[in-house]
Design a protein that fits this description.
Shape: elongated
Radius of gyration: 28 Å
Largest sheet: 2 strands, parallel
Helix content: over 70%
Structural class: mainly alpha
Number of strands: 6
Strand order of the largest sheet: 1-2
Order of helices and strands: HHHHHEHHHHEHHHEHHHHEEHHHHE
Distance between the termini: 37 Å
Number of helices: 20
Length: 400
């Protein structure tokens, strides 16, 4: 019977998800099951019974009229057919997407940490451990080596993903078994994703701690202070590495699940987070705008800009807790916080940049703020970044 059910799913995978189609699918399923049981009672083997059932009921074009969906089937044939990915293709895509995400993340890490050797060698030169020419040569050389390696990883990441470009240009879908496999993998990865996301954000926030502690101790060693300053880029880079790597892998699950939409009987699994309570969904739809307003009100009222940025950290933790506690699995009654779909871009380079845009903006904001202590000015980064993001969407964005 499993072979019959699988074949039935493939027959209806291309059809629109209407009540008439679902009713016809249920009727045909019952007919195929009855015929299978009848053949088994007559002494047929399971393989013979399956083959006979598929031969008798397996051509949807021939039986569509009797099921009352002839107009749907014939109209669907005139439209562009969806390319159905096999389970092996789904597994290959997830493997390639995970590898590409790690390469991209490592490239970002190398670019962020590229200035650290230059800072350290300059400090050694000032302390007399290295000559000026050697320190400068080593620092600049490693700077370009790190950047070149990072760019090379970006290119390699793009080449790994290039065989899957058809997912953006062709109409594709995945069958029920593949969708269930991806959903299972995504749910299994959720705890890893949440932990890595949390650690990544914490590292980005705490990257300034080593140099702050050394500075507060008022030590006489300028070399130690400089080394701690270089650690800002290393720790921050590690945080961004976790954010980019895990976000890229999680996005690959969403990419596959979003191939199915309301027009496919196979099911639509790629929706945004759903909440078990309508009130929670309403709150989450205005959560971040509210947090931003609270941040500015408290900051301008108290002038404690060096502390009020923690509002966003608390907001992120609260948002993560609500998503983990109040979201539902597929198939349960739920409420959407927003009707917006993920933004896609016409240019792959822009899409890669926008994938790490806000984590990068956050790192720049914190590093600049801690280094200059001009918190009442550095908040300007956020509206400038928002305008830049909006321009990117308007110029390079495309319809889903």
């Amino acid at each position: 019977m499993d072979a019959i059910r699988t074949y039935l799913e493939s027959m209806f995978a291309q059809l629109p998800n209407t009540d008439a189609v679902k009713k016809a699918k249920a009727e045909l399923s019952q007919m195929m099951e009855d015929k299978y049981l009848e053949l088994c009672k007559e002494g047929k083997s399971q393989n013979e019974a399956v083959g006979t059932v598929i031969a008798e009921f397996g051509n949807l074009d021939e039986i569509a009229d009797s099921l009352g969906i002839g107009h749907v089937v014939h109209a669907e044939k005139k439209q562009e057919e969806r390319k159905v990915l096999t389970l092996q293709q789904v597994k290959d895509f997830l493997s390639d997407a995970g590898r590409a995400a790690h390469c991209t993340a490592l490239g970002v890490l190398l670019c962020i940490t590229s200035v650290a050797p230059l800072i350290i060698f300059t400090a050694f030169e000032e302390e007399g451990y290295l000559g000026e020419a050697i320190a400068c040569a080593l620092g600049v050389a490693l700077l370009f080596v790190f950047i070149a390696a990072g760019v090379g990883l970006f290119i390699f990441s793009g080449s790994v993903k290039s065989p899957w470009k058809f997912l953006d240009s062709e109409l594709c879908s995945i069958d029920v078994s593949s969708a269930e496999y991806v959903s299972t993998q995504k749910n299994a990865y959720r705890s890893t994703y949440n932990i890595a996301l949390t650690v990544g954000v914490v590292l980005c926030i705490l990257c300034i701690v080593p140099v702050s502690v050394v500075g507060a101790l008022e030590l006489e060693s300028d070399l130690l202070v400089t080394i701690m300053a270089s650690l800002i880029f290393v720790i921050c880079g590690l945080g961004v590495f976790l954010l980019v790597s895990t976000s890229g892998k999680n996005a690959s699950f969403q990419k596959l699940l979003s191939l199915n939409d309301v027009t496919t009987v196979s099911g639509s699994y790629g929706k945004e987070a759903k909440y078990s309570n309508k009130t929670v969904a309403a709150i989450m739809s205005v959560f971040w705008p509210t947090v931003t307003v609270v941040y500015f009100i408290v900051s301008f009222a108290t002038h404690y800009w060096q502390y009020t940025w923690l509002i966003f950290v608390v907001g992120g933790i609260v948002s993560l807790l609500i998503k983990n506690l109040c979201t539902l699995e597929e198939g349960q009654a739920s409420y959407s916080a927003s009707g917006k779909e993920p933004v896609h871009y016409t240019n792959k380079t822009v899409e890669e940049i926008m994938g790490v845009f806000w984590p990068t903006v956050t790192c720049v904001y914190l590093i600049w703020s801690f280094l200059t202590f001009q918190w009442h000015i550095t908040w300007i980064i956020w509206p400038v970044a928002a305008i830049a993001s909006m321009l990117m969407r308007n110029i390079y964005g495309k319809d889903n």
